[in-house]
Amino acid sequence: MSETIFMSQTTQTSETILVIDDDTDILALLEMSLASDGFQVITASDGISGLQLAKTKQPDLILLDVMMPQMDGLQVIEKLKADTETNTIPVLWLTAKTQTEDKLRGLEIGGDDYITKPFDLREVTARINAVLGRTRPVKYINPLINAMGESFSEAGVAELGSHLQAAAEIQLKLLPEKPPVFNEFDFATMFRSSTSVSGDFYDFIPLSDTHLGVVLGDVKGHGIPAALLMVMIQTASRLLSNQADSPATILKRINTLLFHNTDLEQFATMVYGILEINTGRFTYANGGHCPPIHFITDSGDHQQVEESGSRVELLETGGMLIGAFDIATFSSDTCLLSPGDVLLFYTDGVTETEGQTPNNYYGEERLINCFSKNLTLSAESLCDVLQTDLMEFSGTTQLKDDRAVVVIKRTDAQATST
Fold first, then answer.
1. Distance between CA 211 and CA 205 in Å, rounded?
2. What pLDDT score was predicted for residue 235?
3. What is d(CA 63, CA 19) in angstroms, rounded to the nearest whole number?
């Protein structure tokens, strides 16, 4: 069996193309061309070895020559379509201009498209992308079909859909129904999920009449697995927060819980803090999360950076990712919210929002500029301004990642003792 694997170092897709052709020059040409287009390329020089590779490698598409010794391309297609392990792999075959019968025969036995020799490499790539565009959904639906087994029916799919809807509703109910209300502070939130359920979360935890726990986090990944881990973390946060420990201690205990009760690849980032309503002091710990941004409007002594005329402090003190390392340690720090100050918490679904041009992301700098120009607005209006700016930047309402935002603005007119 002859097999080579060629993959571009600048690969932009994980899709694999199996090329089967007995002409080594054509194999080399297609290898280089398709790899430069971002595909992983596997090759075979005859039909028999090509069939074996199709079963073991499960490529996303097979590019197949018709004229080959021992077993020609049409025989290969017939065997591919007769085998349940390979019958869903799309096949694009190469045929000579005069071989009309081969073109028709290939379509009849299950081939997806053909290219006439001599071919243009641009046409090959275009045809491959066209076929993958039609067949790509099958690749992701088939595992669902296999998982559901006999329940894959109209009723079974409807039941699965209702379960996902119920999960989404339960998750939304776990989030605070509305922000807390205090005369001294204005609270607002923004939450959007990229799928039915989310790995992002936030919470407000009443600790006393004058102390409020604030949580915002982001679980690795999306969908149901991330949502289940999010529920675990949120529940732990609520239970542990009532023990009156420091934010660093709370994060340490949540980290231990996750590390010993989840897989190594499951982890989260989060910020946990305690807001003293009477003084404006915020004590926090950051577990590997995007640093909350403190927009400073008073003349206090803060570690600060200049950005668009605003003074900001990044709340980075804390520790490592949550749930990734048993030995992780965390530290607490404080900041003081003076009247007019704004504290912004956000997940990376905000800063990593893609723009309308390649490799252009919303970023921390634009986020700071957006808020700095609007600090006189209410917390809710600041969320609205951010939502509008994100939409204008991306040019779409579709999300590739979950987004969660918490805005806290101190509104009382009198400075208080710390």
1. 9
2. 86
3. 5
Tens of pLDDT along 268-288? 999 999 999 999 999 999 999
pTM above 0.90, yes or no: no
Confidence of residue 206 (pLDDT cuts 50, 70, 90): very high
Do 65 and 93 meet the contact criterion of CB atoms below 8 Å apart?
Answer: yes
Residue 45 has which token pair?
């020089």
User: Closest Cα partner for 288 from 245, 244, 258, 243?
Assistant: 258
Q: Is 370 helix (H, G, I), strand (E, B) or coil?
A: helix
| Cβ pair 191, 223 in contact under 8 A | no
Q: In this structure, what is the dihedral angle of CA atoms 236, 237, 243, 246, given to the nearest 10 degrees? A: 130
CA angle 377, 275, 412 (to 5 degrees): 40
Statement: residue 313 has pLDDT above 50: yes
In 3D, which of 115, 16, 122 has the Cα closest to residue 73?
Answer: 115
Task: Strands of 145-300 (E only): list them.
Answer: 185-192, 200-206, 211-219, 268-276, 281-287, 293-296
Residue 284 in contact with residue 271, Cβ under 8 Å?
yes
Q: What is the pLDDT of residues 72-84, one digit of tens each?
A: 888 888 888 888 8
Mean pLDDT of the chain: 82
Cβ atoms within 10 Å of 18's Cβ, excluding its own? 24
In the structure encoding, which two tokens stand for residue 95, read together? 């045929």
The encoded tokens of residue 10 equal 């600048």
Per-residue burial over 354-365, b if 16 or more Cβ lie within 10 Å, else e, is beeeeeeebebe
